[in-house]
Recover the amino acids of this structure.
């Protein structure tokens, strides 16, 4: 499938498309259950993204910035939910297993050169 490179043009700036982020996440780890991803031009007060469990849908609120971090965070919820049975096991959404998954995804993203951030580089060089 060709990845749409076109960006989402908003009053806050231009952002990569939903397909760009789906491709980015699949390159880190190919999840087993399909999911929907939306890049939304809204800035809710309290969150940069959300995972809607029943719909397997990730929403990234573009004006917050840090979109790759947010995408990985919400993707970790998707994997936690669909592949680790978090609901069945009564795991809290931000319990230890969630942070293990998030940490592993972030680690792979950095190792594969998909997530390049100045802050991470500084720590890596320390
Ligand atoms: Zn979360």
């Amino acid at each position: 499938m060709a990845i749409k490179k076109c960006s989402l043009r908003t009053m806050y700036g231009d952002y990569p498309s939903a397909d760009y982020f789906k491709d980015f996440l699949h390159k880190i780890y190919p999840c087993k259950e399909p999911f929907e991803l939306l890049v939304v031009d809204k800035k809710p007060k309290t969150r940069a993204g959300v995972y809607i469990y029943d719909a397997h849908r990730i929403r990234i609120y573009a004006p917050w910035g840090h979109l790759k971090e947010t995408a990985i965070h919400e993707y970790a919820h998707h994997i936690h939910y669909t592949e680790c049975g978090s609901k069945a096991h009564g795991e809290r959404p931000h319990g230890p297993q969630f942070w293990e998954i998030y940490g592993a995804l972030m680690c792979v993203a950095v190792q594969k050169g998909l997530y390049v951030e100045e802050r991470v580089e500084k720590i890596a060089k320390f």
Observations:
- The CA atoms of residues 81 and 87 lie 6 Å apart.
- The mean pLDDT is 88.
